[in-house]
Amino acid sequence: MAKIKENSTNNLNRKYIITDCNLTYSICMVGGRWKLLILCNLENGKLRFGELRSKICNITERMLTLHLRELENDGIVKRTVYAEVPPKVEYELTDIGRELIPIWEQLSNWGEKHRAMTRPE
Amino acid sequence: MAKIKENSTNNLNRKYIITDCNLTYSICMVGGRWKLLILCNLENGKLRFGELRSKICNITERMLTLHLRELENDGIVKRTVYAEVPPKVEYELTDIGRELIPIWEQLSNWGEKHRAMTRPE
DNA sequence: CAGTATCCATTAAGATACTG
DNA sequence: CAGTATCTTAATGGATACTG
């Protein structure tokens, strides 16, 4: 029943990390409304903050920032700040982040198939 | 930007179905705190309500009921009621539900690896 | 046994304005 | 451009009691 980052603020999905279940751990790391969506947009290379925002329909700057910070803290995304004016920041997948690629690909394929089965046009 | 089941009550994760993204669709179907956990406990066959409850640490009856209903409505889980006293209800994966097995297996393996990397004992 | 119903607490998400 | 800060709303989760 051990939890991590207890009582932290602005920490998404952290309350239910129970260290004896790997699936729960993973859901904590990449579950939720936005994370896989952010990650899959980074599949083909680096993107800037604004590029991510415009690619991910309906995400607010606040949500994008919060989730990117978490993904960065968890070593799934790498953030690079360029010392330029105006500022330029790029995000990319880390090696462990890239290992998730087959997961969102399969999940996406499953969704397409499930939708075709249950919600035919 | 089309949504489904708008304004429904007690419908988890339904607000953000945008029909032109399969990944978002899948996340809606099996995302969230509990669904994959419920499903992976059904991987090896049928289970009764009480068995699921005791296998899934910390889940309340209410949450288990709500999520099982959704999974049933979405054709991912099959519910069988036996006409007995006391009541007996069994849950099992459907075919489309079984197609998710590799996803939680991979996700679980990823979690184990990620944890070993970032949180060594 | 397998749930419902009710009420309440916590958390995630969204809108908007502002800044280095 | 890439964020913060603040406030508000919506969604999720939990406790407890009760029932066919």
From TrEMBL, chains A, B:
Protein name in the entry: DNA-binding HxlR family transcriptional regulator
User: Which superkingdom is the protein from?
Assistant: Bacteria
Under the heading InterPro entries, the entry gives:
HTH_HxlR (IPR002577), WH-like_DNA-bd_sf (IPR036388), WH_DNA-bd_sf (IPR036390)
| Domain HTH hxlR-type: start-end pairs | 21-119
Query: Which keywords has UniProt assigned to this entry?
Result: DNA-binding, Transcription, Transcription regulation
Q: Record keywords: NAD included? A: no
A Pfam family (short name) is HxlR
GO terms, molecular function = DNA binding
State the PROSITE patterns in the record. HTH_HXLR
